[in-house]
Each structure stands twice: as structure tokens, then as C-alpha cells.
What does this fold into?
Amino acid sequence: MTALRITLRKACSFTENILPKFRKNLTETRASISTGPQQQHATFYEFRTYRVEPAQNAAFLRLTNEKIHLRTAHSELLGYWSVEYGGLNQVFHIWKYDSYAQRAAVRAALAQDPEWIEQYISKAMPMLASQDNEVTYLVPWSQLDRPPKEGGVYELATFQMRPGGPAVWGEAFQAAVTTHARPGYAHLVGVFHSEVGRLNTVHVLWWYENPDQRAGSRHKAHGDARVVAAVRGSVTYLENQSNKLLFPTPFSPLK
It folds into this structure.
């Protein structure tokens, strides 16, 4: 009986000493999986995709070209594109906000703006088949970089990554993007991580002089051992991907 008591005391002592350390390590492990680099400011970018009724596509773009100034009087438009490949009869636009409070104030002001409602919204809404939006942040290692000249074509490449966030896949994904950008295969405009919408989604916005230059650059990149190695490292964390080729509208700040 005495030996049993001693054994039980040792077991209790072991549990008291080891269990807290185990719980601490488990908590740290969970944190390392669920967190990653965070941006240091509140600025975010709203991605908006509108599907236009096919018969109304030209009329919608013409109306927006004429009246977009009523909208940009309230907040900053980063870019506005028509989708040429990867989604017919769609427009895609990006709006910049300093905070959620600013966006709420802008939306409230628009709801009370008679010119915006009468001259644009009341006419544009019947032309739309659907609307979608998403809140994104620039990833910490990316900044907006305008193309070297106006014109050209933009590619919005969208990557659905495995759950876990940048702490899990961020380093490998960054390597895949930067190896494409550094040799000059494409001009990197910005890399955005979803905050509201489909989570663990990363959007990469590229610029090319024209679609043929894009095709040639991608063919060349696929023969670059550095690019191939980086992509193989990143694809481990990839669930699926898609892309769209975008042409800037005449009124788009990013042209």
C-alpha cells in the first residue's frame, strides 16, 4: 500500500508539473497555426464584381463613364475594369477605405445623394444581373505599384489556400509571387488577402502590355527553374485557383 501511495504521489506531481507546460505548448502551437503577419493600419480595399445583363453591357459602361464622378466624389476608386476573359459581361472595381466607419459614412451619404440616385443608381440597377463584394487587405509584404505606362491588360489571379492563414502558407506563397515578378515576367500591382468573403483567398493583380505579352511571359516563366521550384513549394497549400483578364475602362484610375 505504501508503495502504491508513493507511485500515486509521483504521478500527481508529474501531472502538476508537465500538464501546464503541455497546455502552454498546445496553445502556442494553435496560435502559430491560426495567426500570421498582420497589417499595421486599418486601410482596406473593397472588391466589387457586377454581372451585367448581356444586352445592357455597352449601355451600362456608357452610363458609368458619364456618371462615375458622382460616386468618386464620396470615396477613392482604385480601378475599374471590364472582364474580357474568364467572365463575360462582368465589371470589376476596387474601392479604397481608411476604415469601416468611413465606408459606413460613405454608404450613408450615397443613400442621401439625389444626383447619384436619380442619375445613376435608378438607371444602372435594372441593367445588373448580380452584385458581389469582398473586403481585402494588402498583404504586409506588398504595396500598390502602378504599371510603368497606361493601357495594357490586367490579370486578377485568385488563389484559394488551405485553412490556417499566412502563418501556414504565407512564406511559400510570397516566394511563388516574387519569383514571377523579379525576373520581369510580369508587373506586380498588388497582392490582397481576403478579410470578408471567402476566407483564405489571395488575389494577385498583375499588369501586362497586352494578352500576347502575357502568354509569352508565362511560357518563358514555366521554363525558369526558380519559378518552377517556388510554385511547387506553394501548390502544397493550394486548394484551387482561377483568373480573369481585365481591360481598364477609360475612367479607371489604374489604366
